[in-house]
Write a structure and sequence with these properties.
Elements lengths: L1 E9 L6 H12 L3 E4 L10 E9 L8 E2 L5 E7 L3 E8 L4 E8 L2 H8 L6 E6 L5 H9 L4 E4 L1 H6 L8 H13 L3 E2 L6 H33 L25 H35 L4
Parallel strand pairs: 5-8, 8-9
Antiparallel strand pairs: 1-3, 2-3, 4-10, 5-6, 6-7
């Protein structure tokens, strides 16, 4: 939910009947009165803030607010993890450091298995834990790392208390919620991410050729070197052999990326069609 304040100056006056009627009309209209500070308005004005509320998903943050008898926060690393379990009264039932294995996690949560929800940061090693929870019908919540860091006390960068803080946020309904990507679609998602990386690198190489041309104050290339058929003679525009070699290397790499991207995009289309043939 996004709140926008629009300040409308209203001249200050003595509280006579006309002024009281004005204030009554403003309060009845759902507006908020803000007294402008002296540095903001030296004339002693009274600001009227109009509250505009937009309920768009882009401006709202989703929180996990479902209550459970037990809340588990996990601070994960590649090989180890901290696990903290709180009950409804906020008492710590488990808070220990252990190996990051399915067996160790299931053993730690075994007493409260059926009434527990698990929360962790949405970082590199979340996927196997989410899959484990899905196999055992345990609710799992992923918190975006940047959102959690923006919450005071949400992330203290201290392994011993991070798991406890995550559990506290979860118990209080203040844990931002990220999307748990389905296991069967993660590989296709990763392919798309690799394509994005390759496409950006290819774009940087194309930009380097244009920047080099502008650096030497040469006439515009005049053709889109993004197309392989229009790259002939581009390196020969420069007289310095070192610059020619640099551009030739860039163009050769662009050609290699073209082949990789074509093959990768075909694999993505085939995988995505398998997931949803209609789109």
């Amino acid at each position: 939910m996004k709140v926008v304040l629009e300040i409308v100056p209203v001249p200050f006056q003595q509280p006579d009947s006309e002024f009281k009627d004005l204030i009554h009309r403003i309060l009845s209209s759902g507006l908020i009165l803000i007294e402008a500070p002296s540095l903001a308005d030296h004339r002693g004005m009274l600001g009227v803030a109009k509250t505009l509320v937009t309920n768009t998903e882009e401006t709202s943050m989703r929180f996990y607010t479902t209550q459970h008898p037990y809340d588990c926060g996990i601070d994960r690393h590649t090989r180890t993890m901290y696990v903290c379990i709180l009950d409804q009264a906020g008492e710590t039932l488990v808070h220990r450091h252990m190996q990051a294995t399915p067996e160790a996690l299931l053993k730690a949560i075994a007493p409260d298995h059926d009434q527990l929800v698990i929360a962790a940061e949405c970082l590199l090693t979340w996927s196997w834990r989410a899959d484990l929870c899905a196999e055992h019908s345990i609710p799992v919540v992923l918190g975006p790392a940047l959102y959690m860091k923006a919450i005071p006390g949400g992330k203290a960068k201290h392994d011993t208390i991070d798991a406890h803080n995550i559990a506290v946020l979860l118990r209080g309904g203040m844990l931002p919620q990220a999307y748990v990507y389905p296991r069967e679609r993660r590989a296709t998602r990763d392919l798309r991410r690799r394509r994005t990386h390759l496409a950006r690198t290819r774009g940087e190489l194309l930009a380097h050729g244009q920047h080099t041309n502008s650096h030497d104050n040469l006439p515009a290339i005049g053709k889109k070197i993004a197309y392989q058929a229009k790259r002939d003679g581009v390196a020969d525009r420069f007289t310095d052999p070192a610059v020619q070699k640099s551009l030739a290397v860039d163009l050769a790499r662009i050609g290699g990326y073209d082949e990789l991207l074509r093959a990768l995009e075909l694999a993505i289309v085939r995988a995505a069609t398998h997931h949803d043939a209609n789109t």
